[in-house]
Amino acid sequence: MELWAVFLLGAGGFVLGGVIGGVISYVLMNRAQMRAKVSAKQLIEDAKKEAEELKRSIEVAAKEEALKVREDARREAERLTGEFKERERRLQKREDALEQKISVLSRKEQGLERAEHDLRRRQSEFEAKRRELESLIDKEKAALEKVSGMSREEAQKVLLERVSKEMERECEAIVARYLEKAQETAEAKAKEIIVTAMQRVAVEQAQELSVSTVDLPNEEMKGRIIGREGRNIKAFEKATGVDLIVDDTPGVVVVSSFDGLRREVAKRSMERLISDGRIHPARIEEVVEATKKQLNEQIQKEGMDACNELGIQGVHPRLVSLIGRLRFRTSYGQNMLAHSVEVAHICGVIAAELGLDVKTARRCGLLHDIGKAVDQEVEGSHQSIGADLARRYKEENPVVNAIASHHGDEPPASIYAVIVAVADAVSAARPGARRETLEKYIKRLEKLEEIAKSFEGVQSAYAIQAGREVRIIVEPEKISDERASVLARDIAAKIASELTFAGEIKVTVVRETRVVEFVR
Description:
Structural class: mainly alpha
Strand order of the largest sheet: 1-3-2
Order of helices and strands: HHEHHEEHHHEEHHHHHHEEHE
Strand content: 5-15%
Number of helices: 14
Number of strands: 8
Radius of gyration: 60 Å
Number of domains: 4
Helix content: over 70%
Largest sheet: 3 strands, antiparallel
């Protein structure tokens, strides 16, 4: 019983607690709902208040923006109105100015009309006076013709002839004075330039030889050079194109040739053969070919060194080789390569003094005797041969003309041709340049003149250009134009048969008639 009582009491307490808890929960829930309702209502009211305030602020902002737009529109309208008024004022001012100009033009037009009317009146008066003057002139002419006994054309012709003669005499006198003055000035300046060039440029003297000697180690070597039945010396002369002289002169053999290049090849080949000791036809041909190859390389180098010394660029390799060959060519004892370099230097000095292109002048001077490198192999004068070579290897016209005209065979086409002719004469004529003695030189010139004067009809003869040309003056009464050509050929043939000379000699026959009149 007690247990059940305890259990019942416990169960009752639990039920009572649950009821009390439920009541408390209900009460609390009701309070929460009431508070939520109150809070929602409050929120709604707050939201309405905020919406009202936002509406009022929007309306205020809209009113302010509308006022601002209205104010801007008013100011813009006032600005445009001001601009329109300013433009209207300017247009009015222009209109007033145009009206003034129109008024001025109207007055000028009236003035021009009056001037034109006055000009027509004066023109009419002038025409009337001109007709009256022409009438008077015609009367005067008729009276003069009647008095003089000549027509108008005849009198005009006589007057023009007199005036023409007087003017011609005056012009001749003026031209003579200026020519004399110009010649004096030009001669002084030319002498100064040439002397300056001669002072600044000089090369050593070179000797002209037609033979070279080769030293022998012993006399037995002569027999080896000759060979059995002369086969070695024949093979050597055939391979080199020279004459090898083996005589009683002790210790030497002589190489003889007018071609300096062949002579140099032969001399070097013989020296190598003697040094080597093996002398037979096959070895001779081998050594000669090797020597030619070596010498060709030296020739190319000599030509290139000459171009570099003068600062000349762009020369064709073939021309460079021919320049180097001038090292083994001489004229009257003067080495042609040294002469060409000297002429190039003189041309450069003269061109610098005259304000011309120094490089072009040097190029013309270096190449002016290029024809002498092959003139023993090609027919013609060294001037024409050199000009053809320069033209073939694309040298410019001033260079070609300078080569062709430096001895007067062609007229100079540029100042560079004249400079080359002057420099060539300076280099050839300066003391010590050529080995030929003064006595021998004078005898050769005298012989030239003597041969020319030996022909009938020759009045005088002059050897010029260092003996390269003989100029002959004939008597026009005895020698006709046709006979002059025959005379030139005859004199040239006689010179060729009686004189020994290098290069060529130009024979010029001059036949002229002069009329002289003295005025006292």
